[in-house]
Design brief:
Rossmann fold; 13 strands; 385 residues; alpha/beta; 5-stranded parallel beta sheet; 6-stranded parallel beta sheet; globular; 13% strand
Length: 385
């Protein structure tokens, strides 16, 4: 439990301000500022906070005892069970059960893309930490969290290897490795960089577009190998997208692949979206006639039947569904939890998985095309590869 420093009347106002800041932000007090006198005799979560001023401590806020910190976790996030139980009261729920009423008294929620962490979920709750065990974070209202003192984190790069394997499996299934081609990669971060290495290993030419990296590398005199997206479209036989979904800023990605870009593409270019639904304008894609591999869809799970029939390969948002990717995500979630709550939660079991693994993507596509109305059920039942 947290300890409150006593104060003299002379410094009461200053001390109260510091205390209020501790309560509101659960400030991580450094060792040099920690009170070295009386120590909390209970082995609790917040012993390390102790007090920053004064010589006498009084017990306050029993809610912050370790086992009274409450965490809500999406039950479909693997490898987490047993890790947080020594430090918190943990409740595992189906995504549909993670609602405003169930999170109202929670201190932390750990979710996936199926849960929208916004005002509808968080308003009036005790939640101060939102973690998503995914690369994407467009299901988190980051502005709301910022304005309400809620810290949030995603897991960038956790499933990058799996998504790269997905792209390679799709290209192999379509027989495109039979001859040298040019691949255009839009977004050269964790995933895009691995796709670039894979294509080079396969003997393909690579052209890349990433305006944020281009701006940085130009500013740091690292040279600039990046091209405008229209220039990439003009020469690429395959264009694959690996960006977050953003609606604002200097380089929004919503409908980045639109009618104008598709007109700039080579007539037989293949479009791959294994990034986020909404990056590709699916109506424009249909009108263009371009072949496509689609893992991430607009309006999931109620996907367009027409787009589904059009896609050469269609899967239910499982590109990154590997055991290694899920394990890395859970490790990252624990690291964020530990930093916020000053705990030492660890994975219950150390596991090793293949770093690179192609798979039968055609069979996955057939199952979705046969039962598109079961998009969500097929996704939940998908066996991690």
């Amino acid at each position: 439990m947290l300890l409150r420093p006593s104060s003299t009347s002379k410094s009461r106002a200053k001390n109260q301000l510091i205390w209020d800041q501790l309560i509101l932000s659960r400030c991580k007090v450094t060792k040099k500022n920690r009170h070295k006198g009386n120590k909390c005799k209970k082995n609790t979560l917040f012993c390390n906070f102790s007090c920053v001023i004064g010589k006498k401590c009084v017990i306050l806020h029993p809610k912050l005892h370790a086992h009274e910190v409450k965490v809500i976790i999406d039950a479909h996030i693997p490898y987490l069970k047993g890790s947080l139980e020594p430090y918190a009261s943990v409740v595992y729920l189906e995504p549909s059960e993670i609602t405003a009423s169930t999170v109202r008294d929670a201190d932390c929620v750990i979710v996936r893309t199926r849960t929208r962490a916004d005002a509808c979920l968080l308003e009036g709750s005790h939640v101060k930490l939102v973690l998503t065990a995914t690369i994407g974070y467009d299901h988190i209202n980051t502005a709301y969290c910022l304005n309400h003192g809620i810290e949030w984190h995603n897991c960038p790069g956790c499933n990058a290897g799996g998504v790269c394997d997905y792209v390679e499996s799709a290209l192999q299934q379509l027989g495109l490795f039979a001859k040298k081609r040019t691949i255009g990669i839009v977004g050269v971060g964790h995933v895009g960089s691995l796709v670039e290495q894979m294509a080079a290993r396969r003997g393909w030419d690579v052209v890349v577009c990433d305006p944020l990296r281009a701006k940085h590398e130009q500013a740091t005199s690292c040279g600039n190998r990046f091209m405008a997206i229209e220039a990439v479209a003009a020469v690429a036989d395959v264009i694959t997208f690996h960006t977050p979904l953003t609606f604002t800023g200097s380089y929004p990605t919503y409908h980045l692949c639109n009618a104008d870009l598709l007109r700039a593409c080579k007539p037989d270019a293949l479009i791959i979206n294994s990034a986020r639904g909404g990056i590709v304008d699916e109506v424009a894609l249909l009108s263009s006639g371009h072949a496509a591999v689609i893992d991430c869809w607009e309006n999931e799970p109620l996907i367009s039947q027409e787009v589904l029939r059009h896609a050469a390969i269609a899967t239910m948002h499982i590109a990154g569904y590997t055991r290694l990717g899920k394990y890395k995500a859970s490790e990252m979630v624990l690291a964020h939890f530990n930093r916020f709550f000053h705990t030492d939660a660890r994975m219950v079991e150390t596991m090793r998985f293949p770093e690179h693994q192609l798979f039968d993507i055609e069979s996955v596509s057939r199952s979705l095309k046969a039962q598109p109305e079961r998009f969500e059920q097929l996704r939940e039942a998908y066996v991690l590869r």
